[in-house]
Amino acid sequence: MNRYDKTFKEEAVRLSDEIGPKKAAEQLGVAYHTLQDWRKRRTLHGDGAHIGSGRDYASTNKTTREIELERENSELRRANEILKDALGFFAKDRKR
């Protein structure tokens, strides 16, 4: 299964508005029904419709900014865990 990022989906939908969904799908190498689904999500959910990479579209309860902040928070937590592991590794090495 292909996964597309938010930017690709948004650009694909814009292109389909300009040249039509069938031509856009052929040009981009995306299944026609996939592009139609993206178009439908944009109509129903506006700016929060295309999160990308297989993630569900934004619920009406969360703004796009909140979703971005949650994603950033998750990335920072992962980075923090990596730094903790590295600190432990170097602390062991220093005791020798």
Automatic annotation (TrEMBL):
InterPro entries xrefs: Homeodomain-like_sf, Transposase_8
Entry superkingdom: Bacteria
Pfam families from the UniProt entry: HTH_Tnp_1 (PF01527)
SUPFAM superfamilies named among the record's database cross-references: Homeodomain-like
GO molecular function, one term: transposase activity
One BP annotation, GO: DNA transposition
Protein name stated in the entry: Transposase
Species of provenance: Paenibacillus apis
Origin organism lineage: Bacteria, Bacillati, Bacillota, Bacilli, Bacillales
